[in-house]
Amino acid sequence: MRARPGPAGAGRRASRRCGELVPHGDRAGVRCGCGAGWAARPRRRGARPGRRPRGDRSLSAGARRRDARGLHHREGARKTQHPRQGRHGRAGQSIVSPIRRCWVGLAVAGLAACHHRTGPVAPRPARDPQVLLAEARRQFHHGAFTKALQALQRLTFELPPDDSAVAEVRYDIGECYFQTGDFVLAAHEFRQTADQYPASAYAPLALLRAGDANLRLWHRPELDPSYGEAALAIYQELAGRYPESPAAARAQLHVRQLRDGFADKAYRNGLFYFRRRAWDSGVIYFKHVIATYPESERAGDALLRLADTYKAIDYKDELRETCAHLQRFYPQAAARAKSCPADSSTAAR
């Protein structure tokens, strides 16, 4: 038996006539396109005990705090923001477009600049090497070492290899490095000058200045003596290759300075062990100073510390020999000796 059609059946038939899949009774408050009227929205269920009704529009505590701080706008929107404006501008706009327009403008300007070139740039006229050499000499003698260095480096490419001025140019390049404080490059240039042009008048001077550059690099005796040893080797080479040159005579003064520095370094090492009562290590360094650098000022001091060491460890025979050597060769230092008796004969008895 077929059921009698009611309001619900009429609504479903109206939905089927409109071509919709959702029944009319399940869509409250939606108008059908086929002339159907508004359907009544079903009443809401009552609020459960302890639950705020849906119709209550009062704000929670957290919402009230956010509203007081002005954070109630959706998605970080500003108060003065346009309703259709997002965080980065109006809807449909992008921040990339101004940047893209800027890059396009720069590219067009670059192409226009390249297009308006009239022709290839004419090469600079070559200068006479002798004129450039005279200008470099003038700058060098006036103390403009940076400008002179640029001109001299250019001359190394423009002068022929067999030119007699090449040795002078290479020597002046090293001197410019030396005067500007770049002692490593200065030593390299001086060494190249002496090796490549040994028959020139600049070869002994170049060896002397190469030793001076290494001596400047070893400015404190307590540091690594590698540069000082290199300087001493160069001075000795100068004395062997050019013994009659004025540069060799000047180098002897620097050799004395270097030997004093080596003696001072060895003495300080021995004194380091002496103060820590490492007697054996101290004796080794003191004897090295006495045997290797007997002409230095530290030789007498090393004998004094050696006598103190022998007295501390009660080596009587060694103490007598050291005091006799001290009084014979270093009488001025023997006057300051506290471990030695006043007379060596007394120490022998």
Question: What's the structural blueprint in terms of helices and strands?
Answer:
Layout: H1 7-17, H2 61-69, H3 96-115, H4 129-141, H5 145-158, H6 165-179, H7 183-196, H8 202-217, H9 226-241, H10 246-275, H11 279-292, H12 298-312, H13 316-329, H14 331-334, H15 344-348
Separation, N- and C-terminal Cα atoms: 153 Å
Order of helices and strands: HHHHHHHHHHHHHHH
Helix content: 55-70%
Low confidence ranges? 24-39, 83-89, 91-95, 344-349
> What oligomeric state do the depicted chains represent?
single chain
Structure annotation, total helices:
15
CATH class call of the domain at 128-244: Mainly Alpha
Main β-sheet description: none
Strand segment tally: 0
Mean pLDDT: 78
Dominant shape: flat
The helix-and-strand class reads mainly alpha
Radius of gyration: 50 Å
Strand residue percentage: under 5%
- Do you know the CATH architecture of the domain at 128-244? Alpha Horseshoe
CATH superfamily of the domain at 128-244: Tetratricopeptide repeat domain
Task: Predict the CATH topology of the domain at 128-244.
Answer: Serine Threonine Protein Phosphatase 5, Tetratricopeptide repeat
